[in-house]
Design goal:
Blueprint: H1 2-20, E1 32-38, E2 41-49, E3 54-58, H2 70-79, E4 82-89, E5 103-105, E6 108-111, E7 128-133, E8 136-141, H3 142-148, E9 154-158, E10 161-164, E11 167-168, E12 182-187, E13 193-199, H4 205-215, E14 220-226, E15 231-233, E16 238-239, E17 248-254
Antiparallel strand pairs: 1-2, 2-13, 3-17, 4-15, 4-17, 5-6, 5-9, 7-8, 7-9, 10-11, 10-14, 12-13, 12-14, 15-16
Length: 257
């Protein structure tokens, strides 16, 4: 019963703050999602606490096959006695929907760090790693992450970095005509506040990076993907799922009972 009450309180908080709009951004740090207009473009922005919320990465189901959708993720979590409160695609993937960079799930390294050169956004260096470890979170440039030899509970590698130590990626151009739907993740200076955002209108890399640096105040942020970007945010009535995806970041809570 206590679990049911706690879960209901979190869902109510998410929904209430979503209805309140962008004011919660400067509020008390509670977990929430809201639609935020930044420099004329609408975004869905969500804030979670790595020390309080159950944030995790998922890729394959209990049968070992890629989940590929929020629906299958929700079904798997239901069987485990959990409700899916939020989900978003969490990094680039191959034609087989496998992560193309480092992927760690519950302490197990499933894909190694990828430091190869190549085409595409993933290889627009510097790229980086989003990680979770013992109630802490971070976004770290790939080379720095490799040197730190950090033991993590979860990690996903993607690219390019959006913001590196407070500076926008050097290859981004403010007036770029390349505008797409984009999603990404940033972590606040406190090392536990995780910001996840997806644009609802096409934006260029520079504008999306400014959202994280100037509005969300994250010193480091990472691009997760574009075009196929999807979000599951019931508090906003947002249920994406039009395309099969690879790794996912999700927040869940125990079912009551």
């Amino acid at each position: 019963m206590k679990r049911m009450v706690l879960m209901a309180a979190l869902v109510a908080a998410l929904a209430g703050r979503a209805a309140a709009g962008a004011g919660w951004l400067e509020a008390d740090g509670a977990s929430a999602c809201a639609r935020v207009r930044f420099e004329g473009a609408l975004h869905i922005v969500c804030r979670f606490d790595a020390a309080r919320d159950d944030i995790a990465l998922y890729w394959a189901g209990d049968d070992g096959r890629p989940l590929e959708s929020f629906g299958r993720l929700a079904e798997m979590l239901r069987k485990r006695g959990r409700d899916l409160l939020f989900a978003m695609n969490a990094g680039m993937f191959s034609a087989e929907h496998a992560p193309i960079g480092l992927y760690v799930e519950r302490g197990r390294v499933i894909r190694p760090l990828n430091r190869r050169k190549g085409p595409g956004n993933f290889h627009m260096l510097p790229n980086g790693v989003f990680w979770l470890a013992g109630g802490r979170a971070g976004v770290t440039e790939t080379g720095r992450f490799a040197r730190a030899r950090r033991k993590v509970d979860f990690a996903t590698q993607s690219g390019p970095m959006l913001v590196i130590d407070g500076r926008i990626h050097p290859r981004f151009m403010r007036d770029s005509a390349s505008r797409k739907i984009r999603n990404g993740v940033g972590v606040a200076a406190d090392g536990r506040t995780v910001w996840l955002a997806i644009s609802e209108q096409p934006v260029n890399f520079h504008a999306f990076a400014r959202l994280f640096r100037d509005k969300l105040k994250t010193p480091n942020a990472l691009f997760l993907d574009g075009t196929i970007s999807q979000i599951h945010a019931p508090a906003l009535g947002q249920y994406s799922g039009w395309s099969r995806i690879g790794p996912m970041i999700a927040v869940s809570a125990p079912k009551g009972g």
